[in-house]
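Reminder to self: tokens first, then the designed residues, so the page reads top to bottom the way the pipeline ran.
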């Protein structure tokens, strides 16, 4: 809203109004506003949650060997994150930009889905929350919306990067197609010609190969949205864990969105140029600011939990951002922590079922998701389930959850650096 107001003032030659036309200014301002909203509004909202007794009742505090009491801490704090994202974006963003629209839809859509889950847990006293199939339906629905929008919108176009030989083949220059076009191409890491066309898998369809490519692109969109959203949800189990990891990931996506929207940088890095994706930088700056502000209250010992209102939304935001800038194939690396959390749950489930067929109760990890494995002793697991056989006993020394959280942050920072490095390693 402010963007359009200052755009009007700029036409009237009002001094200083032109600043709002610069992405750097709006992005930095978005971080500041998001920080202010999440810290100032967060304080009053937490007090409101306490007065209304919207608190954590289902969390099992007995798994914490250090005796930290989790029951009674306000939940549904993800509303703070949502407000801190939406307010600066509505004020500073170009609302007619399709990418900004998609991100706002993602925020509200998954925020509503997570809110429904938290509402059932808190008010209905049902620890299972919203049934899993409804979560999947909601995530798949968002994936369909994103895929169809990118297919039909005239704004969702790219200009492909092309290597051109200059001076009798002695030097290579990267240029971009003059005309922006609809494309099913995405970025694939670690290879020299780093554009992968989904349509190539459907060459056998002849003239309909492009349509087949869009179908595959839509399937990948649904898969990435669902996987990352659930991965972030599983990662939300320790104070500051998901907020810290996601803020780091958000910074990397912001960098990738910026270089993708800047034709000179896109040419230098030999990546496709995506017109209009600069608005994604404004959104992601608000996203990072909101998460850092939320850490003010969510860092150990937490004063509020984000709940599924926050974690489901955070994962969806990361997924849709990567899809828009055609970097979804970098997600397993960038979001490696989320991937391992999900993988640990899958391994645990299959290993337990495999042992059950042999008449033995067994677990591969002490607890899952895997961050709980590092703070759970063997004795505790045996006490909870006397007939349990544990195959993995390391590490023997228990770690405080604050230390586990910081170490997960460090791993995410390493993965973030590797993700950016992939732009040059081919």
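Designed residues (426 positions):
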């Amino acid at each position: 809203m402010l963007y359009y107001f200052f755009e009007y003032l700029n036409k009237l030659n009002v001094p200083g109004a032109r600043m709002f036309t610069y992405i750097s200014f709006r992005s930095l301002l978005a971080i500041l506003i998001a920080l202010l909203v999440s810290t100032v509004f967060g304080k009053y909202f937490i007090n409101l949650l306490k007065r209304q007794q919207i608190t954590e009742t289902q969390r099992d505090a007995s798994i914490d060997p250090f005796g930290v009491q989790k029951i009674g801490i306000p939940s549904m704090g993800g509303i703070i994150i949502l407000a801190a994202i939406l307010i600066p974006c509505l004020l500073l963003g170009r609302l007619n930009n399709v990418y900004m629209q998609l991100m706002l839809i993602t925020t509200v859509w998954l925020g509503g889905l997570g809110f429904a889950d938290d509402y059932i847990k808190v008010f209905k006293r049902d620890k299972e929350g919203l049934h899993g199939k409804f979560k999947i339906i909601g995530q798949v629905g968002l994936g369909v919306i994103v895929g169809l929008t990118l297919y039909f919108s005239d704004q969702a176009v790219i200009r492909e990067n092309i290597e051109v030989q200059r001076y009798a083949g002695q030097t290579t220059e990267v240029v971009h197609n003059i005309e922006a076009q609809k494309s099913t191409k995405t970025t694939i890491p670690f290879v020299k010609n780093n554009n992968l066309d989904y349509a190539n898998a459907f060459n056998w369809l002849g003239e309909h190969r492009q349509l087949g490519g869009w179908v595959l692109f839509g399937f990948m969109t649904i898969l990435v949205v669902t996987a990352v959203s659930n991965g972030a949800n599983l990662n939300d189990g320790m104070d500051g864990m998901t907020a810290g990891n996601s803020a780091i990931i958000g910074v990397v996506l912001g960098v990738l969105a910026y270089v993708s929207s800047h034709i000179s940088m896109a040419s230098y890095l030999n990546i496709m140029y995506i017109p209009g994706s600069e608005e994604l930088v404004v959104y992601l700056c608000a996203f990072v600011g909101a998460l850092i502000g939320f850490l003010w209250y969510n860092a150990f010992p937490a004063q509020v939990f984000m709940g599924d209102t926050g974690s489901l939304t955070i994962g969806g935001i990361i997924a849709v951002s990567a899809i828009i800038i055609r970097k979804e194939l970098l997600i397993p690396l960038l979001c490696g922590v989320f991937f391992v959390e999900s993988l640990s749950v899958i391994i645990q489930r299959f290993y337990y079922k495999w042992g059950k067929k042999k008449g033995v109760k067994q677990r591969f990890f002490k607890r899952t998701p895997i961050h709980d494995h590092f703070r759970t002793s063997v004795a505790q697991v045996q006490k909870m389930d006397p007939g349990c056989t544990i195959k993995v006993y390391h590490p023997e020394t228990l770690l405080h959850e604050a230390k586990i959280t910081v170490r997960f942050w460090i791993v995410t920072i390493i993965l973030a650096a590797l993700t950016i490095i992939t732009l040059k390693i081919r």
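The chain has two domains: 23-157+206-334+404-421, 351-395.
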